[in-house]
Write a structure and sequence with these properties.
- Strands 1, 2, 5, 6, 7, 8, 9, 12, 13 and 14 form a 10-stranded mixed beta sheet that branches.
- With about 450 residues, this protein is α+β, with helices and mostly antiparallel strands.
- The N and C termini lie close together (about 5 Å).
- It folds into 2 domains: about 190 residues, no CATH class; about 170 residues, no CATH class.
- The protein is built from 7 helices and 25 strands.
- Strand 3 and strand 4 form a beta hairpin.
- It is globular, with a radius of gyration of 24 Å.
- The chain binds zinc ion (2 copies).
- One zinc ion binds next to loops.
Length: about 450
């Protein structure tokens, strides 16, 4: 479930409601569209109850919010889980370990320099909190092959940085990936009385003050690095107004047919193509075509891939010249559908003939960035193989080389309840696509 954030339009001051995945602010009152930029994860506060003593600015405790899919690959197969959790980031007994559904149930506010308050610093590293949250997810035990396989140093994506997962629990899987996650901070207001620490929203007593003896409870003021900036969404090349909806991560220019990824600081031009549709085309869905070499498996061409993964088909001679690409849905989907769609499109890639992209009105928003598509390659490779034994044990050694990413829009036709891709036979229920927008 998405959380709702109240946000003032930087242009006209109107109150707008955004979702946590929104990177664009599109004001229905003044019509101005702005792209929100930030050096790290977005930060939100749960507004304190009005009965709080306003003479003292409230103290805020940090919680880390993770939302996305976790994939685990082990000898037994691929397991996955949708993660949607908001975990305690400040070590203090009495604080709720998780905010449960509170962030969803309330309208949050963006943390601004003008928000009155002091902020406790994170005492636990983001990756440790994430590890803990993942450990709460069900997992299959594996026993075979453990001795033979050296588990990899897995990389995960937290906010803007890549970090290495700690050693704990490594031996339970051959590969693990976090895909499509939103990471943000949610601050819970606390009220300090002479005797107690209270929940600043409900007024519930969390712990007697004497039990917090020795715990620093001063907090720090707003850090200027947390400031979110607003940037106009004009085409950096021709100055035309770019197209895109609230949660999109790529905007397109219908004047000069360019595509722009929303970076942390600015808009970055990206390579894009499309496979031509026809009159039956109802919409175009974007895929990240990630071309890469995998020396550990000796997969360079599409023919290599067909052979190494034991596909029940014979490689055509020209497939030896075709660099292997992994086709990753560029929009959020539930894990099972994500795997199936990525697998079908990857296997059917030889039927696709992408050409230069031309902006058309029915391009579906891109909501999964190229960085996360690259992190999905091993998972899609695992999902695409017809022989686990030939691929899974080698996953820890798999490193991608000569990686390029191109956004390719594929035409889909309307088949009643489904969207259907005629070249690859990929189909997905319309409900699934609607669901993915709020994932
Ligand atoms: Zn406005
Ligand atoms: Zn342009």
């Amino acid at each position: 479930m998405d959380i709702r954030i109240e946000q003032e339009c930087p242009q006209c001051g109107a109150q707008i409601t955004l979702t946590e995945s929104d990177r664009l602010l599109s004001c229905p009152y003044c019509g101005v569209k702005s792209f929100m930029q930030s050096a790290g994860a977005f930060r939100y506060v749960i507004p304190p109850s009005s009965r709080i003593d306003v003479s003292a600015p409230p103290l805020y405790a940090p919680y880390l919010r993770f939302k996305g899919n976790v994939f685990l690959v082990n000898e037994a197969g691929i397991t996955y889980k949708v993660m949607d959790t908001t975990r305690q980031g400040y070590e203090l007994t009495g604080l709720p370990p998780s905010l449960g559904v509170r962030p969803q149930a309330m309208h949050l506010k963006r943390l601004l320099p003008t928000t009155s308050g002091r902020y406790l610093r994170l005492t636990t590293k983001a990756r440790v909190i994430l590890e803990k949250a993942v450990r709460l997810l069900p997992r299959r035990e594996t026993h075979t092959m453990r001795e033979k396989v050296e588990p990899e140093k897995d990389m995960i994506y937290i906010g803007s940085r890549m970090e290495t997962i700690s050693n704990a629990d490594r031996d339970h899987f051959l590969h693990r990936a976090f895909i499509g996650e939103t990471v943000s901070f949610v601050y819970l207001p606390l009220e300090l009385t002479d005797t107690d620490i209270l929940d600043g929203v409900t007024g519930t007593r969390l712990l007697p003050l004497e039990k917090a003896a020795g715990v620093p409870l001063r907090g720090a003021p707003f850090n200027p690095r947390w400031q979110v900036g607003f940037m106009p969404t004009l085409c950096p090349r021709c100055g035309w107004s770019l197209d895109g909806e609230g949660d999109c991560l790529v905007m397109t220019c219908s004047n000069c047919d360019t595509a722009w990824a929303l970076g942390q600081r600015d808009l970055k031009q990206i390579a894009w193509q499309m496979v031509a549709g026809d009159r039956g085309t109802a919409l175009y869905l974007g895929f990240w075509k990630i071309s890469a070499h995998i020396p550990a498996l000796d997969i360079y061409s599409f023919a290599d891939f067909i052979q190494r993964t034991n596909q029940p088909m014979v490689a055509k001679p020209q497939w030896h010249e075709r660099v292997m690409s992994y086709w990753i849905p560029a929009f959020k989907l539930r894990p099972k559908i994500f795997l199936r769609t990525g697998r079908q499109t990857t296997l059917g890639q030889w039927r696709l003939k992408p050409e230069d992209g031309h902006v058309v009105p029915n391009l579906y928003p891109v909501t999964l960035p190229a960085s996360e598509a690259k992190q999905s390659v091993k998972v899609i490779l695992a999902a695409s193989t017809a022989s686990r034994k030939k691929i899974f044990p080698f996953l820890p050694e798999v490193r991608l080389q000569d990686v390029t990413a191109t956004l390719v829009f594929l035409p889909f036709v309307d088949k009643g309840h489904d969207w259907y891709q005629p070249h690859t036979g990929t189909a997905m229920s319309k409900n699934v696509l609607r669901f993915g927008r709020s994932l």
